[in-house]
Amino acid sequence: MAGFFRFSTINMNWRFWLFGRRRFFVWVESMQEKLSSALSYLCAWLLAFFGAFSLQDWATIIGVGLAIGTFCINRHYRKKSYLLLRQHPQLRELYEDINS
Fold first, then answer.
1. 6 shares its domain with 46
2. Is residue 43 domain-shared with residue 60, that is, in the same domain?
3. Domains contained in the chain, number
4. Distances from the Cα of 13 to the Cαs of 3, 16, 21, in angstroms?
5. Rounded to an integer, what distance in angstroms lies between the CA atom of residue 12 and that of residue 63?
6. How far apart are alpha carbons 17 and 20 in whole angstroms?
7. Quick one: 27 and 60 in the same domain?
8. Percentage of residues of the chain with pLDDT beyond 90
9. What would the pLDDT profile of 19-68 be if each residue is shown by its tens digit?
């Protein structure tokens, strides 16, 4: 009876291993289908978005974005210069000589 018990235990472990793996592979396959579906929708939306604008429209959008970025960078460094001059008034004369 001990040998039969050992055989049935091995058999049950083998079945668990097989069905557990099968469930895992089914889960992976469903995740792959969901991922590929999401990626195809994303690509479709991106192509529709980029196709909606002409080359001239894109040039305008990029130009406006760069102008706003330049404004923000210049404002940041002007503010840093102003704060530095407020902390060290003796540099004001040097700053005015350089920028005039």
1. yes
2. no
3. 2
4. 15, 5, 12
5. 68
6. 5
7. no
8. 30
9. 555 566 666 667 778 888 889 999 999 999 888 889 999 999 999 999 99
User: Exposed, middle or buried: residue 9 (CB in 10 Å: 0-12, 13-18, 19+)?
Assistant: exposed
- The range of the structural domain enclosing residue 69 comes to 54-100
Residue for token pair 């923000």: 72
Report whether 85 contacts 92 (CB < 8 A): yes
**Percent of residues in the chain assigned helix, strand, coil, to nearest 5:** 95, 0, 5
Between the two ends of the chain, the Cα-to-Cα distance in Å is 103
75 and 85 fall within a common domain: yes
Q: Output the pTM of the full model.
A: 0.49
Measured CA to CA, the distance from residue 39 to residue 60 in angstroms comes to 29
| DSSP letter (8 states) at residue 88 | -
